[in-house]
Write a structure and sequence with these properties.
The complex is a heterodimer of chains A (253) and B (375).
Chain A lengths: L4 E10 L2 E11 L4 E5 L6 H8 L9 E9 L2 E2 L7 H7 E4 L11 H11 L5 H14 L3 H4 L13 H14 L4 E5 L7 H14 L4 E5 L3 H7 L2 E6 L2 E7 H6 L4 H7 L5
Parallel strand pairs in A: 3-8, 3-9, 6-7, 7-8
Antiparallel strand pairs in A: 1-2, 1-4, 4-5, 9-10
Helix pairs in contact in A: 3-4, 3-6, 4-6, 6-7
Chain B lengths: L4 H27 L5 H6 L5 H56 L1 H7 L2 H4 L3 E2 L4 E2 L2 H32 L5 H13 L2 H28 L14 H26 L2 H9 L4 H30 L2 H6 L17 H8 L6 H33 L8
Helix pairs in contact in B: 3-14, 4-14, 6-9, 6-11, 7-9, 8-9, 9-11, 10-11, 11-14, 13-14
């Protein structure tokens, strides 16, 4: 099934401040798209609009059209809960549930869906941890150790496993490696490289090298506007907008 | 870029501004340096580096020379003062225990451990046992907790999650106001409002539908264990609710987002990300509430019926350790009588210690293995 993301005239507000101005973008299925831009340009707000997390903050508002596959995210009768079950998200700061074991962390999303079958659950937990490249490190104390007892990089991969366990179509990552050390960062990047074979990945990043390494497509955001969206290679060699060029060459930001 | 040289320029202008203003900004621009403070210090622009390095240094020097001796002295005074406070606190607790033991010696030597298990309370024959009072204290607190805990957690969840933000501060204030009402007022309200309501409406209803449990049977006075437990529940509700509210608010937003992003509904999010993380804190709140219920005297004395007996039915009158002391202390004429009452106080003290210890153990067993950083 096609799980490309199509965004039309997306506007978002915090109170009376408009954070996104008429964003139009079509992100292709099973590819990874990087969102880059200086701090406060709206890139996090943008990805949070894709799975309706933006509206969980007080005094926020969104309008516009976002379609993922056949589902209209802001359509009538579409609940935020059903949207989020199909569009997983990994946050900047690793946020495993500290009172749950590693196993329960991965299974938490499935348990919300009322997953009854024990042995099937075991299988999904294992395959999710394998996909997140964490299985080998934790397989011996799945139920003994708390999710919070892992290192920062492991916690982030645990969060990725947790998001993958519910088998989403899309994985959104909001600066997933910015709180991690270089080695953990490179593990996460390798992982994203693998994941985009199966999922549509959208990754917000501060780090332009990271965007160049993991994403086929890149969108450049500035002051709540999308300035340019193109193949990553072209963005970093021959950007068509002067502002993109200025940002990429380090003239500002 | 164009705004960056300004801080350095204004810093320079204190000594000889116009001269270094030019080179400073030029150097920055050609080097392409983009950050501010550290670079400007190492920047070899004439007149710039010495000023930045010296100015804070001289200021600190002149100030710290004056305060060096003073601060050692002040440190000493501070250290002694806080040490004294800590010792005074421990000593007063020790003195209270010492006094209780001394004063209750007569009763202890006369009744021994039988005091804890006897059901007799006979001031005339000078024969005393504390069991009905221990029972009353525990049961009234238990009834209070059963009623108050779900209500206060519900209140806290409503205040943090559902209540419109406009009325949130007003409601929070009202809940905290409940805690500030003197207990004698609760007692009066219980006497004139709660007891008649219990007698005429609640107790007949409970007897009809729950009478088979044996907990709700017998004569319906209104006064009794149920009335005492209910008033205690109202009194401890604000304590548990306000602490629970704070604990819930302290759960990091990232935890809520983690659950929501997995497709949790609001209630599921509260269950797996909020209440689960807040559990140790909520338990702590319950323990504080229980401590208050144990020690509460006035309102309980006015409503419990003050009869030293153990009954299965919650309709029956009872008595508690705290209220028997308050009620009978002034009229305790014999030495044994007085000593028995002091021993009751000692029992209440120890009971509180034991329950707090157990509760602490419970919190510890739940939080074990969870890093502290979370909560």
């Amino acid at each position: 099934m096609d799980a490309g993301i199509h965004v039309k005239d997306l506007n978002a507000w915090f109170g009376s401040t408009q954070a996104l101005h008429g964003i139009n973008i079509d992100m292709p299925d099973k590819q990874s798209t990087a969102i880059i831009g200086p701090s406060g340009c709206g890139k996090s707000t943008f990805v949070r609009c894709l799975n309706r997390m933006h509206e969980t903050l007080p005094d926020t508002r969104v309008d516009g059209k976002v379609t993922v596959g056949d589902m209209e995210i802001y359509g009538k009768g579409v609940s935020a809960v059903s949207v989020r079950r199909r569009i997983g998200m990994v946050f900047q700061k690793p946020n495993p549930f500290p009172t749950m074991s590693i196993y329960d962390n991965v299974a938490s999303g499935l348990k919300l869906n009322g997953y009854p079958n024990r042995s099937e659950l075991d299988g999904i937990v294992e395959s999710s941890l394998k996909k997140a490249a964490l299985w080998e490190e934790v397989k011996d104390d799945l139920k003994k150790k708390s999710g919070a007892s892992l290192s920062g990089g492991q916690q982030q991969r645990l969060c990725i496993a947790r998001a993958l366990a519910v088998e989403p179509d899309v994985l959104l990552m909001d600066e997933p490696a910015s709180a991690l050390d270089p080695i953990s960062t490179s593990k996460i990047e390798d992982l994203i490289f693998e994941l985009k074979k199966q999922y549509t990945v959208v990754i917000v990043t501060h780090n332009m090298q990271q965007a160049a390494r993991v994403a086929e497509f890149t969108a450049f955001f500035l002051m709540g506007n999308m300035v340019e969206f193109d193949k990553t290679e072209k963005m970093f060699t021959k950007p068509s907008d002067k502002r993109t060029e200025d940002y990429i060459t380090g003239r500002f930001g | 870029m164009h705004t960056l040289p300004d801080p350095t320029a204004s810093g320079d202008s204190r000594s000889d501004g116009p001269r270094s203003d030019g080179p400073g900004s030029d150097g920055l621009r050609s080097d392409g340096l983009r950050s501010d403070a550290p670079e400007t210090v190492s920047n070899p622009a004439p007149g710039n580096a010495p000023l930045v390095a010296m100015a804070p240094g001289t200021q600190m020097g002149s100030r710290s020379r004056l305060t060096a001796k003073e601060s050692v002295f002040a440190d000493g005074v501070f250290r002694s003062a806080v040490t004294f406070c800590a010792i005074a606190l421990v000593a007063s607790v020790g003195l209270i225990v010492y006094e209780l033991i001394i004063q209750s010696h007569l009763s202890m030597s006369k009744f021994g451990f039988g005091f804890l298990t006897k059901q007799i309370w006979d001031p005339v024959g000078e024969d005393f046992g504390a069991l009905p009072f221990i029972f009353g204290t525990l049961v009234s607190a238990l009834v209070a907790l059963i009623l108050a805990v779900p209500l206060s957690i519900g209140t806290a969840l409503f205040l943090t999650e559902i209540c419109p933000r406009v009325i949130r501060p007003i409601l929070s204030m009202l809940v905290e106001l409940l805690a500030a009402i003197p207990s004698v007022i609760y007692g009066l309200w219980g006497y004139f409002v709660l007891v008649p309501v219990l007698r005429l409406h609640v107790e007949p209803f409970l007897a009809k539908y729950m009478g088979w449990t044996g907990l709700f049977s017998g004569r319906m006075y209104g006064f009794g264990m149920l009335a005492a437990g209910t008033i205690l529940a109202i009194m401890i509700l604000p304590i548990i609710a306000s602490i629970t509210r704070e604990v819930i608010m302290a759960v990091p937003r990232q935890q809520r987002e983690a659950a929501l992003a997995l497709g949790a509904t609001k209630w599921e999010m509260l269950r797996i990300a909020v209440l689960r993380n807040a559990r140790p804190g909520i338990l702590g709140a319950i323990i504080l509430g229980m401590g208050r219920a144990f020690g509460e005297t006035m309102a309980v004395t006015m409503l419990i019926g003050n009869r030293a007996e153990i009954s299965k039915s919650l309709f029956a009158p009872g008595n508690t350790l705290a209220s028997v002391i308050a009620n009978e202390f002034t009229e305790a004429v014999g030495n044994t009588y007085l000593s028995a009452l002091v021993e009751m106080a000692l029992i209440l003290f120890v009971l509180t210690l034991i329950v707090n210890g157990l509760a602490g153990l419970l919190v510890w067993s739940i939080t074990r293995g969870t890093p502290r950083a979370l909560a």
